[in-house]
Amino acid sequence: MDFTKMQGASNDFVMVDAHKIARDWPQLAKVICDRHLGVGCDSLILLLPSKKADFRMRIFNADGSEAETCGNGLRCLVRYILEKGLINPNINEFNIETKAIVNQIKLERKSGSIVRIQVNMGQPRLSAAEIPTNLKPGKDFIDTNGMLSYKVNLNNSDMTLNLVSMGNPHAVHFTSKPVAQFPLSVVGPLIENLPVFPNRINFEVAQVIDSNQIEARVWERGVGETLACGSGACAITVAAKLLGYTDSKVDIKLPGGILNVEWDGNREVMLGGPAETVFEGQWPD
Q1: pLDDT the model gives residue 110
Q2: What is the CATH number of domain 142-268?
Q3: Active-site residue among 33, 41, 76, 229?
Q4: Is the pTM of this model over 0.90?
Q5: How many CB atoms are located within 10 Å of the residue 255 CB?
């Protein structure tokens, strides 16, 4: 089975064109994502045909669970599609279907070369049912400008979790201290598996640097700490905008690189950032 290893801000993936092949994908993801015995990556991503878009994407995390969306994975899949010649090389816009939505892709070119891949990640989802959480409105959390916030004490620390869904669930905690000092490996799995989140949840710890810059780290559901997360960067931006911390355009500085997010508080969230091929290979069946 042919595969391509790719990365976006060091969030890495194994890409497979699955138009004509079938496998036990959840089990294969566990093996192929293993950093000691497999290729090594955060997620396995499949390219598939779609009945309502140009292409369809499925995402399997390192633990075999299937994710609804993946912002960095989308940009990498765009690069994969272009490099494999699977679409008109001069196209400027096309669509990719995920479990969450149909994402619009915009390509920015300079002197004939693609210099930017921007993904429309859709409208943020902010209700308890959409996140989802079984917390009770008006009882378990507070509502600030449409931002649902849940206070919790973990690892002897009081934290406020700001809840956002970008098609997949996120809990964002803002801290005044450098994110490098945050005990993410301890707190991340505790928050991921809180009973109030029936589908588990992704967790981001973020420090606002100024109105256009945020530093962050991410604990991804089903993966663990990753060097970047596209949908997580979008969730951070939405939460920061609603809470009045930032403007509409924000650079999210993650350990693996910088992601550019735009959200004016009303329209869809736009995500930009790097997407590169690492190497190609064949997986033995």
Answers
A1: 84
A2: 3.10.310.10
A3: 229
A4: yes
A5: 16
